[in-house]
Structure formats: C-alpha cells, structure tokens
Amino acid sequence: MKRFYMLFALFQFCWFCVAAQNITVTGTVLDPTNAPLPAVSIKVSGSNTGTQTNAAGKFSISVPSNGSITISSIGYVSQTLSVNGRTTINVTLLDDAKSLEGVVVTALGITRAKKSLTYSTTSVSAEELNQVKGPSVLNSLAGKAAGVFVTQGAGGPGSTPRVVLRGNKSISGNNQPLYVVDGVPIGGFADYNPEDIENLQVLQGASAAALYGSQAANGVILITTKKGKLGAPAVNFTSTATFDNPVSLPEVQTSYGNGSLGVAPTTPINDSWGPKITNGSDKYIKDFFQTGQNYINSVSISSGTETSKLYFSYANTDAKAMLPGYKFGRNNMTVRGSTQLFDNKIVIEGGINYIQTKTTNRNESSWYNSPMFGLYLFPMGVDISQYAANGGTVYSPTRGFNVQNWPYIKNEHSSNQNPYWILNHINRDELDNRTNVNGSVRYNITDWLNLTGRTTVNKYSYDNDQRYGASGDPTSIGVNGSYRKDVNIGQDLYTDILLQANKSLSKDFTLNATAGFTNTILTYQAIGNRTNGADNTLYYADYFSLQGLTGNYISETEKTKRISRSVLGTATIGWKDRLFLDVTARNEWSSTTDNSFFYPSAGLAYVAKQSAPNDLLSFAKVRATYAEVGNALPFGAAARNSNYTVNPDESVNGRETLPFFSGLDTINLKPERTRSYEVGAELRLFQDKLNVNVTYYDATTRDQVFKITAPTGAGATEFYINGGTIQNRGIEATVSYNAKLGNVSWTPGINFTKNKNRIKSLSNLLTSDRFVLQSGNRLTNLYLLRPGSSLLNGREYGAYGDLFGKTYQYNEDGSQKFDPTTGLPVLSVQADQYIGNANPDFLLNMNNQFKYKNFSFSFLVDGRFGGLVSSSTQQWLDYKGLSPRTAAARDAGGVMVNGRLIDAQTYYNFISASADAGAVATEYTYKSTNIRLREIAIGYTLPTFSKVIKSVNISLVGRNILFFYKKAPFDPELALTTDNNSLGFESFQMPSARSIGATLRVNF
Amino acid sequence: MKKYTHKMNYKVFFLCMLMFAASSCTKDFDGLNTDKGDISDIDLQKDGAEAAFLLPVMMNNIVKTTPDEQTQQNLQAESYAGYLEAPSNFLGNVNTTTYVTRGIWESSYTISVNGVMNNWLTMKRKGFDTKYPDLYAIALITKVAAGQRLVDTFGPFPYSKYGDTAEPAFDSPAAAYAAMFLDLDKAVANLQAAETADPNADQTRFKKWDRSTLLGEYTNWIKLANTLRLRMGMRISVVDAALGKTQAEKAVLAASGGLLDATTGSFSVSAPSGTNPHYTMTNAWSDTRISAAVVTYLQGFGDPRLPAYVLPATDPVLNGTYRGIRPGVERPTKSVYENYSKYNVAQAAPMKVVDVAESYFLKAEGVLRGWNMGTGTAQSFYEAGVRASIAANGVAGADTYLQSTSTQLAYVDPKRPDYASAPLTTNVVKWDEGAAFETKLEKIITQKWIAVFPEGTEGWSEFRRTGYPKQYFIMSPQNPVLPLGTYIKRLTYPTSVVTSSQNAYNAAVAAYLGGVENEATKFYWIK
After folding, report:
1. How far is it, in rounded angstroms, from Cα B64 to Cα B112?
2. Interval A755-774 mean pLDDT
3. Which of A535, A655, A660, A720 to mutate to test the interface with B (most CBs of B within 10 A)?
4. CA distance A715 to A154
5. What is the mean pLDDT of residues A500-515?
6. N or C end of chain B, less CB within 10 A?
7. Does A208 score more than 70 pLDDT?
8. Phi and psi dihedrals of B494, rounded to 5?
9. CATH 2.170.130.10, applies to A103-237
10. Which of B54, B90, B286 has its CB closest to that of A652?
C-alpha cells in the first residue's frame, strides 16, 4: 500500500511539472456548526488528483487556475467550486441529511436520487431514532413515519413490538414488514444496535418491495448501517441511562373488604365482596413494582483511507424490569470493512455482526402463572406483607423446604398464585445468539456497468429454560414442579448476483437498470422437552433437568428447510431529469409452493417543478405506481403427504390440516397475490421551508391463504384454502416545516396515517357466512364475515380485526330487554354480535424540534384514534368486587336496573360471567383512542474545550411521559402478544412504563 | 422447472434470458415442504407399521384419554347420567350441566370426528381395506364405537358418506345405525378370516398397537364388535323391534364369536400420559365430584362397590359421610361443593369405554323382550352381570348384595335444603321373577348403570331410552326449552359444524329433527 501511494505521489509530481500554469489553493473546510472538518476529500475536477483536509480542516492543493475543485465528505453535500484564480477557498459543507435533494437507498441496496422514485418512502434518521433510546430500536419507530403502526408486545425489556405497515394484509401470514440491512434481508432486527444505524428507510408499499419478493409483501424497512469513514480514526461514545415507573396501573376500590355477600370469610377467599372497611389501601399494587433501570452503553470507531475503510462498534444493554428479578442484557458487536483493489475496479466489503441477548426470569402475562394475576386480584383490606415475606414462602415441616405461602390457590378459570412466589419460583431464562457474516464483491466492469455478488449467513440459536417450582398451581404444575427446555438453532443464507447499469443514453435519457438472481435458504431445527401440564412432574422437588422428567413427558423435534429462488429485473428510465419510468419484474420459485409465480410493477414520477428556490412553490412532483406481489404459501400448506407427528407414548397422530379437497378432488393452492396502486405528490413551498408529501394507496390481496375449520365429514380437521380477498385503502401524509426565528430553528413535522380494511369476499368452495379466526380469549372473537352476512350489522363489508362478543338485547322500540324473573339484562345467545374493530381509524402525530445555539429541545406527541381493546383484567376486577364501580354500586345499595335494585355482587357476577366466557363484551371493551407525549428530549452541546474531544452532548430524555387523553383504564397500546389473533386484547400484563433518563454522547 | 402459466409474452422472454438460472431452480425442492422431525409414510413402511400406526390414536379418541375428556363428556354425558358433577361454575353457571350446550365446548363432537373418523378415512384412502383387512377391521370397530356415540349424542351424522365430498350430507340416525351394522359385519368377517388363517397373526401384527385392555387379541375385538352390535340392537328394540331382535340375536350367536365377559374384562384404553383424566380433573383441577344419585342408590342398596367408587366428603358440614352434588345446581362459588365426595379413581387406571358387565344386562333385557339370548334366564344374566361388576371392582359380597331389599336413600344437601329429594324409586336389588316388565327392566338398567359407572355416554343413552334409573332433575336449568323437571335429550351441534357445514346441517335439521335443533329435540330411539 505504501509503495502504491509513493507511485501515486510521483505521478502527481510529474503532472505538476507538465502543467506549469497551476496555482496552489489553500483553505479550510467547516461543518454547519463551523467546526473544522478533517478527512474531507478535495479533488481537482476532471482528474485523479486529490488530497484530504487535515485535523484542523485545512487543505492545500495544486489546481489549474481556471479549473475547479470538488469537495466531498460522506454525510455532507458535495460542492464543486471554480477556482477562478483564487488561492484561498474556505467552504462550509451542509449536512446531507438536511439536504432535500438527497439520495435514498432503495431495494437491493441500490442508491437512487429521491426525486426519481415513483412510490412513497419515509426516511428516519439515526438522530431521530436514537433521540430517546430503549432496549428495542423498534419501539423508537412509533410516531416517526406515516403508514407505520407500532403496538407494544407483552411489555418488559426483551419483548418485541408489532410493526405493521399500511394495515394487515394477510390473515394467516406474518403481517410484519421485512427488515433489510444493507441490502440483505435479516431476522431479529429488534435486537440490533441502534447506534449502528446510519439511516432507516420505510418503504410502506409493495411497489418498492417487488424486488424482494414474497417476504416483502407487507412492506420493507431498509436499514443502512454506518461504515468506516475517510480520515483519522473517529471514536464515538454514547451512554444512556433511563428509569422506568409503571403507569396506568389498575384502579381498585378500597372501601369494601375480603369476603362474599357482604360477610367476612371464615376461611380465606380472594373475593372482595365483604363488609365495609376503613383500612383499605391500594398501595400494595404500586409497591410490588420496582423502578426499572436501563443502561445502554456503546462505542464505535471508524477510520479509513481512500481505499480501505473500517468500522467497529460494541454496545451493551443492561436492563432491570419493573418486576423484581426480571432482567435483560444484550451485547452487540459489529465489524465492517471495505477495500478497493485494482484502481477501484474491484470493491470488497465484509462484516460480522454478533448479538447476544439474555433474558433472566421473564414473567408470564395473562391468567396462569402471571404475577399480576394474584396481585391485582388480592383481596382488599388483607395485609399482603405476610405473604411477601421469605419470597412468598413458608416452611413446610412435611416437605422440609419452603413452599408457596398463599391461601388463595384455587382453580377458578385460572389459578391464583402468590405473586412474590411467582417472581422467585417461576423462572424463565432465555439466551439468544445471533451471528451475521456478510460479504460482497463488486466488479466495476466499466464506469456505468458493474457486477455485484453478495452473500449473508445469519446463524442463530435460542435456548429456553423454564422452571416452575414445587408447590405451584396444581392444575398445571406437578407436585415436584414442572420443567421445559428448548434449544433451537437456525441458519438463513441469502445470496444474490446483480448486474447493474447506470448510463446516460443520450442528452435527455438516463437508464438505471438491474438484472439479477437471488437464492434464499432457511434451515431451522428445534428440540424441546417438557412436562405435560400436571400429568407429569419431576422425580425430585425443584430438580430441573431432563433426566428429572417423569412418565411420558413431551419431547419434540422440528426440522425444516425452505428454499426460494428468483430472477429479477428492474429499470428506471429518466427523461430530462424530470420524468421517470420505473418497471420491475420478478419470477419466484419456492419450495413451499407448487408452481413458480411472477409479478411485475410499473411506476411513473414527474417532477413538475424543481430548483426554484425563489418561487412560492419551489418543488413539485407527482407519482403513481402499480405493483403486484406474490406471496409464497405458508410452510407445509400445500403438502398432501406431510409427515405425521409422534406422541410421547409412541402413538402417531393422523394428518389434521390438509389442503382443501372434496372427496377425490384436490385443488392446488395458489400463492396469495397483492395488487396495489398508489398515487402521491410532493410539494415544497416558501423556499423549500414547507414540505408536503401525500400518498393514497389501495392494496388488495386476493387468494388469501389461511386455515379454516373443515366442514364435518370432509375428512380433515382444518383446510388450507385460498379463502378470500382483503382490501386495504388509506392515506398517508407528512407535512414538515423548517423555520428560522433569529437564532432559533424550529422544525415541526406532522404525520397522518389512515387505513381502512375490508373483506371483499370469502371463498365459494365453502358455504359458511363466516370464518372463525380466534375464539379463545373469553371476551371477544375474531371472525371474517362474508359480504351479506347477517352479523355485519348493516355494514357492507366486514374488516380484519372485527371483534364479536355478547351484547345487551333490545326490543324493537329500542328499549333494553330484561329477564322478568331475575331483573337482569338479557344477553345475546351467542358471543357473535359485532362490537367494533381493533385497528385504529387513524394515527396523527407531531414532532417538534427546536435549536438555539448549543441547545436543542424536541418532543413527540403521538395520537391514536379509534379502535377497540378488550380487557380481561377489568372483567376479573368486576367479578372479584375490586373495581371502583362495584364499590359505588354497594354504596348505592345495589345496581338500579330497569327500576329494580339488584344486588351488586349478583349483577357484576352476571355481566362478568364470573370471569369466564360469556361476559357482556361491550362492558369490557374500551376505545383505544389516546394522545400521549411519547418522547421528549432536551440537549446541550458543550462548547469545544479540547483538541482530543471533538464534541460532548448531554440530553435529558423521557418516554411515555403523560397522556393528554385516554379512555381505557390501562394503556390501550398493550396487546397480549404480537400475534395476528391477539389484536385488541389485554390481560394481566406488565404495565406500561414511563421512562426518564439521560444520554451522553462524546465524539473523539 | 415446473409448469407455470404464461400470462405475458415479456415474461417468456425474460425467463429465456435467464434459463440457466431457472432450470436449476427447483431441483432440490422435493420433500422439503414438511417437517422432518415428524415421521413420514416411507419411514412407516418399515416393519409393517403403516398398517396399524393410526390405531392407537383412534382408540384414544373414542372416550378421550387425556383431560380433554372434561369437555367431551365429563361436563355433559357424565352429568346427565348422574355419575359425576362439577363443583365449578363454568361460564357463570350457564353451561352444559345447566342444559345450555349451544356455542360452547365443541369436544363432544370434534374429538371422535377428528381422532377416529378422519383417521379411518385415511386408512381407507390408502386402500388398507383390501391391503390389511384385519387391521382395517380394528379401525372399523373403533369407528363404530365412536360413531354410535356421536349418533346417540347428536342424532343425524354424516356416517355413511363420510369423506365422499367436502360437504357430505348427514345420515338420519336410523341410516347411520344401518351403516354401522354393515361395518360390524365386515369387521367381524375380516377378523374371523384372519384368525382362521393364522391364530397368531394378531400377536405379531397388532399386539404392539393395542392400547386397550383387549391385549391385541383379534378374538377379544370380535367380542367387542358383538357387544356393540348387541348394545345397538337393544337401543332400537322399541323403535325398530324387528331389526333390533335380528341384530341382537346375531351378536349372541356362538358362531359370531362371543361377547365381552368376565374372561375378557372391560374394554378400557390407557391414557398416553399414564394419568387417568378423571384423576387430573378430580385432584389437580378440583373440577369433578360424585353426583348425588351414585351415593343415594349405592348406599341405599348397601352396594359393596360404594367405597370403590366414592370417597367420603371432606366438607366439615358433611361429617365424613358420602355425599354427591345434585346435578345442574347453582354454584355461586366453587368452594360451595368443592369438598363433597370425590370419585375414587386411581392415577394409572385406564379409561373405560365398554364395561365388562354390560353384555350380561343386555342379555337379561333381551330375554325379557322374548329374544333368543342363548342359555340362561333374565335372572341368571342379571345376577351374573352384578357378580361380574363386583368382581371387576375388586370387592366382595355379591351373594349378600343380590338378596338386598333396601331402597334408594333420600337426598339431603345441608347447604341447600331446597335441593333435597325423597327417594325416586322403591325398587330393590333382589330379583323378583313375578314382578312386572317395567319393574324388572328398571332393576336391569339400574344395575347396568351402577356397573357402567362412570362411562356417561352409555349411562345417559340408556336413561333416555328407558327412563332408568330414575334421576334427579337439575335445579338451575338455564335453557328455556328445558324447564324445571325436564331432562336433556341431546347436545346441539357445535357452532363450527353449523357454520362450516351450513347446507348439510340445514338439510339434516329439516329432514331428521323436525326442523328444531335444540336440547329438547327427540330422535330415533329416544323415549
């Protein structure tokens, strides 16, 4: 390398000798904050001559006096300046992220000018994403881009939120977007080091994703990672500490004590229908939780020369949840390097990304084994401290060890257990390891044509160790305890070869085209052993080991492999830099799908006005795109001769789910196909200060593949069927403004997202008016309704996420029906009455950023409007006489129903169906509309005080600070799981957290 | 490369350009689309496993041998038969025990349909009826055992056209019975042929797969088939006397191969986990207790089987006496009845499907009806049945018991005086040849009911056919079609059947249930 450099210097010298009219230009390059910029590339235009700025941002270069120089640095807008005989040229470079004419990374990592795109995309910068950091980077995505729906999972560090772009498109499939890191699809993105992210790009539609195939039918989130940068090594250090406290804990009454029918119990029961008390307090709920702590420390080093660049980062996350004992830790390490060979003919890049996460003592949610269950339902007026002592245990002389101390263990549609005992004796530890090794070689055949080969191997393993201590709930835990052990390993291999051309065909026409081949191989293996409820237990109390499992315990092995291959092509033709035509095509072969499938897209963008900074309207563009995406069938769906599962007692189960058949007729399943179009416009007004971006889209997915209950006598339990057509239509709009008020800069931004889902048709192969998707949560059912079904309640179409349950019944004159004997309301016979939809009507959020000298201040207000969520917690609180309204009813001597005073306990037992299925769903279903101050940050950048330390920034940050509006008595963004079928259901989950903390950033 | 549809010309062009890549695209796809951790048809061809591998799981799904049995029949037939009752107030006490069956707990229907009928269909589609006629015969007997219970519980059922189309029509209960008799004919013929060809064939081909107490003996399975035939013949003894007599006499004929008796024992199937589901429901879940009639009859008769069936109550108000729960009562909280008498079930006990003594009582009734039931009188068959049951329960005292003339006790519930009941009958255990037909029938059915305990589906069916033994009506009926003092006649079809088989369902209700599909609708042999 050194010799190469000397040769280069010699060449430079010779050239200097020949070009005698050259002059030496010196100068300083500054960044927008007027700090000197080192390692900026200075090139003489039209030649290979160049140099770099030094640490003080100074350069010196020999240039023809009538020539020009190009000043460029990654992250800044390049500038080309004419020398015109000047010997001193000082330059201030502008941030590229702020540049409106920026380039964007599109599918397959191809860089394109933003204005040439024919579809909608939203960019989220690393700065916005990392403003208020949490353990998962995905939580930080909420409210930052139009078209993005983020729902928290079960809560607690290590739980992954649900992210959906432009509505739920698939009934059985995964509705979550594909995550693509540096052009390659990746799993487990929730655990990536947010500091490695340079930029995050949301491609909401299928159009941009046509190139990624099946996996991208739900949209794509493209992540560009930080790379090594030219210049002296730069070191960044970031440290964040935040502290969590529970918000929206359930409210309980404190005026009636333990007991039933107004009488105190003689033996302990956990009902709070007892006599009036004066010592009631709800303090024990809050006291159960601790202040959660999150510490995220990361360091990155980047350096590079003209030919070789290196980036290294390490991050450590250490979190203690609000539940004592529940911890989460993560280590992220990334190394990336690149080098250029043979005069930039060949560019080699490679990287390793390693993620290890460890979750200790993750607690369960909902009914059985959830600490919140025993805690929230604890009888009022009883002192919990007697059961909190010794970790919730008491010494048992018969067993010779400390057993669960809880008089309320009883199977009552769920077992009630000591929450302190659960924290200490029901333990779940998970260990995840993920290693991603990637490499690429690019051969620049000519200056407009290159061939790139890339491959990524993503190896992961997961270890799950679940221990249920002896003396647990006897309905699901054996007398000596229960144990579950899973070890899963997998490998995703992704390879592609792309031939890319980028050429001006004539003065007016430009071509940007790619043809390629991709190959994806996913292998997975899972091994699990576990006790079967209370049917088996352990040989010895609390001996958690595979050789300790008794009897016919459950033992399972899963081995799967999926291959998909595709050929693809894409071309963008530009005319006069104003009109762009985009076409793509892909043919895909998948091992889960019998026949190959093909899908195209086409888009058009017209830039009506550009670079007119002095006009009122400074930029205008309109665009339209039509795209199809085929979706490979779910694994095993098309298999008529699938393998049989084997039971622990050696018996073999028959096939339960089969592709649809009728007698001897078999119909081949087709891959799902989403046809979508979108139209949009981008406008900039008032010298580019006001930006408006609006998109309307319609995505209709036909031949939806899902499982339904087979008709009786058909010969299968369930059929896979091409069952229906779902449409998602919506509007996304972004408005932002860039204001300068003296020294204060203010950049507000508003995102608006509205999506409407409709079930257009259900398969004619079957006659039923509804397909049942979920019916197990006791409050609401999820159905898909055929247009014309009587259950639609007069609506033309049903929607995905429609909730059904029991409702009050009304007479024709509108008056409510009551049972003449009991006086209680009459309910619908079946839990199939339409209640509403779980998905929000629209999202509206506003981001504000203020900067004044070294100070910055930003906040994000996030609003979610419409949609329903039902709460099992509230149902149980009514049943147990703990909800505030049960106390109010008792104060009033009962509940006045239709002129009759009904005993409060009778009434609330009835409407809550004693916490079992059959409750009045409308009583426990809440509007999830809420407006919250989601993020806030106040930052200060210290004035430069050292040559070594380039900058120091300190900010105070907060998340989930307060609700401006909220109807539900809990955080309506909670969902029991991130599954499709848990839409709109909350049940004894870890409460949401309000986080407050500080971040320190130091650049060396 | 597999065949695909050409939609556009440019697609062909595009593919031709990349033919190299395309042609190698699917070479390695074969056999990938299934979980290799599971077992394949090819693996199962080894050691002849394919002939019989579905039989164990079929046996496990007649009466479910896992705790799913709770929603298959514990909360339905076992309650209606007066055997076992739940102390738990499921669904706010609006559930099957209070006669509301619509829209809840589909297992009564789905377990046998998915676990027996669908697996039988798989064997038939594989051509095993001709390839492995002996093992196919076992599948047929299992299918009849399950099918007969489904028909008796629901009425119309798509038995004869099962698997012919995606939405086959339902049979009338009579047509289903006729088809089941044919299946039994075929099964017995196949097994007899196999026995004749090689009496030890079953030991090598079937024994490993038999999860029941019949020990893999084809001769025992023939006896099970004949017992089912006798049971079904008796069921239709009034509604179709001629067919009933023919089938019953055919079952008893020596050439048919005999009936389940004291030498074969009951037909019971062991639980895959090793734990009897009633044991889990009784102990771990505290969800099932003895029903009132078990104690009032057995204690009143001085039955030696009482301690073998029932444990003394632990509720302090009952002072260690035996006490069951009256069926279908109000249960404001579980604790009210949680400590009434438990079912005395051993953890490792297999689940009984057909009781050892049933054939004796069926023959006793056959004699009563004037059928040729072989050598013996109604009294001799009756007494042999009682002895067989007492012996099978490992207790003594049959001689004394058969002379017992004490009667059923009154029922008293100390927590709910309004649930008390005077004795329902004055009939006694001791045989009285001079008594009227109905008195003798009541004796036979009452003793059969005691013997069959706790197999609720048979107990409930015979109660619906004969009205014996006399049962307590439920105290908290929640279904307007079954007011206080009435008894449930059938279960309604699960919602999934109503919605997924809408047309076939509507047709069956119109044709075979008189257009009314509810819990009070009578069909075929119901009295």
Report:
1. 8
2. 84
3. A535
4. 38
5. 88
6. C
7. no
8. -60, 155
9. yes
10. B54
Going from the C-alpha of A846 to that of each of A97, A134, A330, A735, A994, the distances in angstroms are: 20, 20, 32, 9, 19
| Residue A25 pLDDT > 70 | yes
Mean pLDDT within A287-310: 91
Asked if A67 and A45 count as a contact pair (C-beta separation under 8 A), the reply is yes
For the beta carbon of residue A3, count every other beta carbon within 10 angstroms: 7
Q: For chain A, where do the domains classified as CATH 2.60.40.1120 start and end?
A: 19-92
Cα–Cα dist A957/B424, whole Å: 77
Distance between B444 CA and the closest CA of chain A, angstroms: 37
Query: With 60 as the cut, is the pLDDT of residue A735 above it?
Result: yes
At A145 the pLDDT is 80
Whole-number pLDDT of residue A98: 40
By Cβ distance, the residue of A585, A591, A916 closest to B90 is A916
Residues of chain B with pLDDT under 50: 1-17, 19-22
CATH class of A19-92: mainly beta
Query: Residue B178: helix, strand or coil by DSSP?
Result: helix
List pLDDT tens digits, range B373-400: 999 999 999 999 999 999 999 999 999 9
Q: Contact, B71 vs B107, CB < 8 A?
A: yes
pLDDT digit string, tens, across residues A988-1000: 888 888 999 999 9
Taking residues A58-87, report their average pLDDT: 79
Contact flag A712-B497 (C-beta cutoff 8 Å): yes
A-chain residues near B1 (CB < 8 A): 589, 596
Main-chain dihedrals φ then ψ at residue A663, nearest 5 degrees: 60, -115
Distance CA B382, CA A854 (A): 101
Q: Is the pLDDT assigned to residue A188 strictly greater than 50?
A: yes
| Cβ-Cβ contacts under 8 Å, A644 against chain B | 38-40, 44, 53
The answer to whether B482 touches B522, Cβ cutoff 8 Å, is no
A567 and B501 within 8 Å at the Cβ level: the answer is no
ipTM of the prediction: 0.89
Give B207's DSSP letter. Answer: G
CB contact under 8 A, B92 and A918: yes
Per-residue model confidence (pLDDT) at position B14 = 46
The minimal CB distance from A710 to the residues B7, B29, B500 is found for: B500
Judging contacts by C-beta atoms under 8 Å, the chain B residues touching residue A584 are none
State the number of CA atoms in the 13 A half-sphere of A989 facing the CB: 26
B269: number of Cβ within 10 Å: 24
Judged against a pLDDT cut of 80, whether residue A4 lies above it is answered with: no
**Structure tokens belonging to residue A969:** 């008595």
More confident residue, A308 or B143: B143
Distance from CA of A572 to the nearest CA of B (A): 17
Please give the residue of chain B at the shortest CA–CA distance from A516. B18
Q: What are phi and psi of A731, to 5 degrees?
A: -130, 135
The verdict on a CB contact (< 8 Å) between B273 and A562 is: no
Per-residue pLDDT at A19 exceeds 60:
no
Domains within chain B, CATH numbers bracketed: 42-279+348-513 (1.25.40.390)
> Which residues, 6+ apart, have CB-to-CB distance to A868 below 8 Å?
A803, A835, A836, A837, A838, A925, A926, A927, A928, A984
Q: Are A370 and A422 in contact (CB under 8 A)?
A: yes
In this complex, which of A551, A639, A710 lies closest to B274 when CB atoms are compared? A551
pLDDT at A209 (0 to 100): 60
Residues of chain A with CATH 2.170.130.10: 103-237
Cα–Cα distance measured from residue A691 to residue A149, given in angstroms and rounded to the nearest whole number = 23
Q: Which helix (H) or strand (E) holds A246?
A: strand A231-247
Whether residues B40 and A769 touch (CB distance < 8 A) is answered with: no
Residues forming a β-bridge with A775: none
Quote the pLDDT of residue B425: 96
Contact B2 A595 (CB under 8 A): yes
